[in-house]
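Hey,

Quick one before I head out. I ran the complex with GMT overnight. Inputs first:
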Amino acid sequence: MKIGITCYPTYGGSGAVATELGIALAQRGNEIHFITYQQPFRLPAFLPRIYFHEVDVGRYPLFEYPPYDLALAVRMHEVVLRHDLDLLHVHYAIPHATSAWIAREMLESTRPDIKVLTTLHGTDITIVGQDPSFHAITKFSIEKSDGLTAVSHYLKAETQSAFGCAGCNIEVIPNFIDPEVFDRARYEPQLRDEARGRKVLMHISNFRPVKRVKDVVGIFARVTQEIPSILVMVGDGPDRVVAEEEARHLGISDDVFFLGKLEAVAPLLASADLFLLPTNSESFGLSALEALATGVPVIGARAGGLPEVVRDGETGALCEPGDVEGMASAALALLKDAERWARMSQLAAEDARARFSKNEVVARYEEFYRRYKPSARS
Ligand code: GMT
């Protein structure tokens, strides 16, 4: 199949999933065309059957806000025609599903068979899409998509209730990991100089307010009082300063390491003892899944789709959002019991492989595509 994929190419779960999906689909013989404003961050320079089409937004002094959505629609229209695509698959509803709808309208006379598939990832539904300035267009774009997937059952239900489309046919296809990449046994220990024998707690995110990074620091502060530890913070975003300030305020700055945005997180995860994800409402929690697959138990919030990924009490521990004390207690209990930690670590890696392995999930996407691919095409 020839598939156009649009996503946010920058650091973040939806872009990571879309890019890994495109790479895996190309490895299985499909032709993939990424249509985005820059090369997706997880896409290496060149891979067979993968092509990148940059969206260039024309500038004009009148434009205070250059219309990216329109430039994206024009590029989608052009790539469909030039490369004879079978499908457009967009990740994150806003504005990608809207641009794809415009492109499909533009293709009405030349390629009336082209279908638009949208994967809903999280804040496109739970935050941004519910903002009054975007609600109507998000609802419209969801309803106009030919096929819809959501990364968790939670997100499917949230979409149906927030946009009043109880009958919306949304298929749940979860995010996935490559078991060969997220494999604890594969990597040499990292962070030796930083940890100096202490436990390693880790958090990876885009440091947006919803992630509650201040809570991450708060949980760590309580843990390190009893068990000498370090906190490794990977990623960057608006609340990084909030976390840095909290670490200073609590007098633990020297034990908190901000590493910034890193592409390859698997080797670091392989050196972690616990992963912290206290997000208010995580639709899935790809970083938590990557941690579990690497044998790192997750301490997080019992909210959103995270309980579909982390088995509470078996592969990690979940508390109510904002319950810093509870999460710290759960972390301490686990770190104090080496046998329980080892059992949980093993089960986490096994469970992630059993339910979220790349080959099985990508095959589900292929099966989903086949339902929408123009029938006259081989
Ligand atoms: O929705 C976002 O905040 C952005 C998005 C991203 O690009 O990182 O994250 C969402 O999609 C990920 C991939 O499907 C999920 O793993 C994250 O849980 C989800 N984020 C939220 O729901 C907050």
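The mean pLDDT is 96.

Talk tomorrow,
K.
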